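[Solved] Which block belongs to which protein?

Original post:
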Amino acid sequence: MSVPSTASFVGVDTTSLKTITMPLTSLRQGRVITFKDKTGNAATNPITLTAAGSDTFEGSKTQYLINTPYGSVTFISKGTVWFVMNVNQSVSLSSLVSTANLVNLVSTANLANLVSTANLANLVSTANLANLVSTANLANLVSTANLANHVSTANLANLVSTANLANLISTANLATLVSTSYLTSQIGSTVVGLGTAGYVSTATLGANLSSFSTAQSQSFYSSNISVSSLTTSSLTFGTGNG
């Protein structure tokens, strides 16, 4: 497709691919020509503009692409170059915002001096969050009604199960936490502590033993106890009866 010699505006039908050869710049210096996608299909069928002869587009390019729906570009000829005067095309960010392009910009090293305890000290604090994170503010967000579809037996079935907890709750993992030796020391120190605090003593035990039964005595033992009075029909010391 060629450009009419007197045209200053060319509307291009992009219902199919179009390649347009530019007129020679030598034919008329200072000529201004605008090309536009008039049907809005340039994203699928881009317009390819090709320089003629030894002419180029600015930047020493021999082709220029219009690939935005209803996009347009205006050129002016000077010497052997078509210079861009005006462009109406949206820029695709896919080639700008990507893991590869951001790798040297967003990283632990680059963020180290920006996101840190010191920098956040005046931003994230109890005082600053007081009006944001509170029972009143969360009342409509965290509630039985709102969580009903999120926290349920069905939703947790694949998260909390014997299989998932197998490596977390086991005899091996609990061995140092729940064991005879550990509980012996803890219960022993607790009894001593209760005695020191006055909760367990001969006097308090004596008062409770005034109605102590023979059946209960079989499972009770004390190496040092004083009982002010004791009523029983049978009392056993050692292996004899009395």
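(Second protein starts here: sequence line, then its structure tokens.)
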Amino acid sequence: MCHYITAILPAHADLQAINAIGKSYGVSFSTLGNEHIERQLQSDQQYLWKESKFCDCGTSFGAFACYQHTHPDTSLKDIKKLRKKGWSEAKIQKWLDNKARSKQKNERSEEWSKKTYEQDARVWIQFLTDLASENICGYLGLLFHWYRGGIESERIDIVQTHETGIDQLNEDAIFHFLEDHIYQINFRNKR
């Protein structure tokens, strides 16, 4: 189906104040009831959905995984196979030209995606930095998951919770987020 981002906050956190800060970043949260997740949280935590008109596919969360694939180059072995199949030199050259154009298009697309991921990560970092400076809550946990069913009924097993300070959060850290892990961003002045 789609990726969605959810959040974990202290139960006492002022959701209205958090959403007021998030408004300028296009980030707002609402309560979400998912019993399977809530059983895995501490009793003094609340589970929230990052409101959105659309899914969170294309998020910077875990974006590094998108760059793990490689583009194999054409080898002489490939060309020999085509010749054995009876392809003419003109047809092979056309195939090579099309393959080169496709590779250039993919590289441009990947460059555009990388810029989009970087921009998204900067928005998250700025939102979290502003939230930390307001001393509204001691932390905010982020979780992203590929949903195959309903957001309130999906059975998600949280793999691990990773804690980091707001000062250690950067684009690279966000790019390396893993699905079904909670990334708890701790703020300096905990309440």
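Accepted answer:
You had them paired correctly. Confirming on the second one: The two ends are 37 Å apart (CA to CA).
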